[in-house]
Amino acid sequence: FKNTYNLTVRDLEQPLLVSKTKARKQGPKPTNEKESSEFVYLIPELCMLTGLTDDMVKDFRLMRELHEHCRVTPKKRHEGLLQFVENIRNCEEATRLLGYWGITIDNGTVNIDACKLTPEMIQFGGDATVSAGDQADFKQAIGHNRVIGGMRIENWVMITPKSLVSKAHAFLQALMSKGPRIGIMFKNPKLVEMQTDRTEDYIRELKRNVTSGVQLVVTLLSAVREDRYNAIKKLCYVDSPVPSQVVLGNTLKEGPKLNSVAVNIALQINAKLGGELWAVKIPIKKFMAVGLDVWHDAAMRGRSKGAGKSVGAVVGSTNALCTRWHSKCAFQRPHQEIVDVLQSCMIGILKAYYEENNFLPETIFMYRDGVSDGQLGLVQRTEIEQFLKAFETFSPDYKPSLIYNIVQKRINTRLFVTDPRSKDQILNPGPGTVVDHTVTRSNLYDFFLVSQSVRQGTVTPTHYVVLYDNSKYTPHQVQLMAYKTCHIYYNWPGTVRVPAPCMYAHKLAYMVGQNLKVEPSNLMSDRLFYL
User: Fold this and answer.
1) 248, 251, 259, 277 - which has most CB atoms within 10 Å?
2) Does domain 150-272 bear CATH number 3.40.50.2300?
3) Which of 205, 276, 293, 383 is catalytic?
4) Is 362 marked active-site?
5) What secondary structure does DSSP assign to 490-516, as a single string?
6) What's the pTM value of the predicted model, to 2 decimals?
7) Which residue intervals define the domain PAZ in the entry (predicted)?
8) 337 included as an active-site residue
9) Do 512 and 504 meet the contact criterion of CB atoms below 8 Å apart?
């Protein structure tokens, strides 16, 4: 270390930290081939812990200052980028190295024209429509409109520890008062009061009260406990399939805030039971939107069946409004990104679509999250091939159009707009901003889309790479479809950064891998139980 890094190791008796890394390999891997890996040995005194401790996260002032530091305004971000470029241009060594490769850096950002998509009209129950507006935010409209498909919740159970009984009654009153206003009907539940709040108490009462015909189980928790949460979800989604809503006691505020909390929870419950909240008009007929994501076990430790494995999740729409979804998931080898069980999952979703509509989709919009540039070729050779095989397996004559979109969030590209009233004012581009030229790749069919509204900090666009497209749709229609699907994620009354099917696939993969550790019951496949 002294000779190589000019660092002196003080404690020669300290044990080494061992890190097992896997070697990256391009191309498909035979199923019988083991993952190649190597061990890296680190000296503890030369290492630093990363991330935030639990005490740091609980420190409100520290977290506020950290967020303020990270949320750099567009103007400051732009100035910082220009200063960075200037520093490189003024550095002789950097200029010499870049010149060796024939690279020169311009002294400013690139000025380009962008396309701005029209704000979407959000559809609610009773044929009501509300414009999402320039900020793509329809939160205010939620409490004043009925949902498209409201559920009648008549046979349900609420389990609460004795310490939260008063909050449980107030919450019930708010649910039964606010629910009907948005089209969701709650009857009085069976209220189960526990003297203590041990995990075994919750499991005992769940087993005792989850009987045939129960539509929903709501459990109130006094504190965050992952083991308790996991046990509840596993019983409700694997052992005795029933929609479950877990509510933390400290989220049940007193006064007017409780009404807002009750509305949000009522919406989530409605979605979990198969109800429909809102929609956008989609002009394409006989189509399906599909999301695909993979969850990896970061710790790769544990003794349960699912521990150490990756989970691939596929979620597909089954109706014309993209308000109903069918989900499939499967475990894979540890840290395997490419989903090799895609074919069987897709066949299951196609069957669900056919049962719902009595016909198959003619066009499938696929949104695949979590793929880096280096994996594009591998996805093209494996995942897309599985899709095409799934179509053929379902029926030799079934040949739908497929638009396979790679959705990339972790990118370095930033987009800025200038205020027409002041050229010196640098702002974030609004939701619906599309750039598909100049800064895109010359060898790819790709575009950048800003779908979310960011009021603090600098917005990061989402990069879409259309890896496969045998459809008749124009790039504008493909871009518009991506933007529309960013409006229908039922956990947020506004636009999200990636299409809703991506978000649903991510939530499903995370819950199965992190909480359940086993595949959920097939009886839950037609519900957004993972919200």
Assistant:
1) 277
2) yes
3) 293
4) no
5) TTSSB--SS-HHHHHHHHHHHIIIIII
6) 0.89
7) 1-51
8) yes
9) no
